[in-house]
Design brief:
This protein is mainly β. The chain contains 2 helices and 40 strands. 2% of the residues lie in helices and 46% in strands.
């Protein structure tokens, strides 16, 4: 028998100084269970681990952090200082206009080690085009214009300016004492010149994915963060414990720099590798976008910012189109007479991504060639859904063969859906195996809300937050 637990999130009195403001959107970090509320004046309220399933206000409600307006976009970034750390730290990044919109101001708050509250992060950076103002934050020499978008992952986040037609990719590294320190070092790793309109942007499992007209563009994240190499003269090797590299020393996992190894999944609120197991720690010490040193060698290499075009084929980039006749049913052909924009992109697993377009159709993207330095290969398939979805929410859980996602019609209903797992072909030669397999989508349960739904955020495979007209409701299915 399926049971549903539901409750309204009771914020403490005077949680926001302007009690008349309405909540417009939600951001949720699943491992620390931190919640960010965006209000109608573009301010944010940060709540570390708020009590969700309770019927009355809790006297032990965690302390809130108010981030004043103006704020245009925000994201959570998971910081992993070393491969020996599996819990990491949570960084909240907020972007807004600065100096009349001629530049972008980034502000940073880090979750304290005891996860009891957020504190302003101490910042450092050493790249042209960005400067640290210890009173304000980080000023980026990038036009703010009318729209700014942030997307974050593990140790990496991206900033897209529509007006400047550029995407900046940043790496963030925790510095100082991991127990008490709140220092963050910021490095500008890549600049992408946008030549086509971008509808959505996300960073998932080592990929930067851009929702475009009629499809999705996929950038491997590793070459963007790694930087381009300029060989320097051979330097005398120093003991590793005394190395004082400009951007710090970042260990690697299985030869991959932890800074851009975003193949970390949320499986039952635990951090695991893409095989579902705890990552093994081995490799060399690497300094990202500063100087890098190969193990057993005395050679140091200077890394510089990667610059490329959005439509470039460099770094193994590819574009996966909705218009591929193999990826859509004949019934939906008429939907593609005009450009269809990819509105939401979410990961089911390291190789599978759910995409919701702006006409309410679902698509499933497989990526099956992840060899470093090679062009990514993939396959797009249209999924038959009996409703026009306006919102999509997914939390990856690689421990389950059948995965759950949530869709909403944007009015008063949220539907819990399940999708059957499928093995990913190793290369294009066996891509035809996909064509013969049917992807099974099933409806599990529907939730009907009394208020019009503004936003949905997954808490787990069986739990979700729903934002109505200023009220937040939590639902759990068991």
């Amino acid at each position: 028998m399926v049971t549903t637990q539901a409750c309204k999130l009771n914020l403490p009195l005077h949680a926001h100084p302007s009690s008349s403001l309405e909540i417009r959107s939600l951001l949720f970090e699943p491992i620390s269970q931190s919640l960010a509320l965006m209000y109608s004046d573009s301010s944010f309220l940060l709540l570390p681990s708020p009590p969700l399933f309770t019927s009355s206000p809790s006297p032990s409600f965690p302390p809130q952090t108010l981030i004043p307006s103006p704020s245009s976009s925000a994201c959570f970034v998971r910081l992993h200082g070393s491969p020996n750390s599996t819990d990491g730290r949570v960084l909240f990044v907020v972007a807004g206009p600065h100096n009349g919109g001629s530049s972008v101001l980034l502000r940073f708050w880090i979750l304290r080690k005891n996860q009891a509250s957020f504190a302003k992060a101490e910042l450092s950076c050493n790249r042209s085009g960005i400067s640290c103002d210890h009173r304000l934050g980080v000023v980026v020499d990038l036009s703010h214009g009318l729209s700014i978008k942030l997307a974050g992952s593990v140790n990496v986040f991206a900033l897209h300016s529509v007006s400047a037609r550029k995407i900046f990719v940043f790496a963030a590294k925790m510095v100082g004492d991991e127990d008490d320190g709140v220092g963050v070092r910021l490095v500008k790793c890549a600049i992408i010149d946008c030549t086509l309109p971008i509808c959505s942007m996300t960073i998932l499992f080592g990929f930067l994915l851009l929702g475009e007209d009629n499809g999705v563009r996929v950038f491997p994240l590793r070459p963007l963060v790694k930087g381009r190499v300029n060989r320097q003269q051979e330097l005398k090797r120093r003991p590793e414990r005394k190395m004082n590299l400009p951007n710090g020393s970042i260990p690697t996992i299985n030869g991959i720099n932890d800074l851009y190894s975003t193949e970390t999944v949320y499986s039952k609120h635990l951090v695991s590798g893409n095989d579902g197991k705890s990552a093994k720690q081995e490799g060399t010490a690497v300094s990202t976008n500063g100087f890098t040193k190969a193990e057993g060698h005395h050679e140091y290499a200077k890394l510089r910012t990667v610059k490329l075009r959005q439509d470039s084929r460099e770094c193994g980039t590819c574009f996966m189109s909705f218009k591929d006749p193999e990826s859509q049913s004949s019934k939906s052909t008429t939907l593609f007479s005009m450009p269809v924009k990819a509105a939401y992109i979410h990961a089911l697993s390291p190789n599978k991504f759910l995409i919701l377009d702006m006409v309410g159709e679902l698509h499933l993207l497989w990526l099956y060639n992840r060899v470093s330095g090679s062009e990514i290969k993939g396959h797009m398939r249209h999924l038959n859904l009996s409703m026009k979805a306006q919102m999509l929410a997914v939390i990856p859980d690689i421990s389950m063969r059948t995965q759950t996602f949530w869709v909403s019609d944007g009015f008063h209903s949220v539907h819990t859906m399940s999708i059957s797992d499928m093995d990913i072909p190793a290369n294009e030669d066996v891509k035809n195996d996909i064509e013969e397999k049917q992807v099974q989508i099933s409806a599990i349960q529907a939730i009907f809300a009394s208020e019009k739904i503004q936003d949905i955020v997954p808490l787990a495979a069986n739990a979700i937050l729903i934002l109505g007209q200023g009220n937040i409701y939590a639902y759990a299915i068991s």
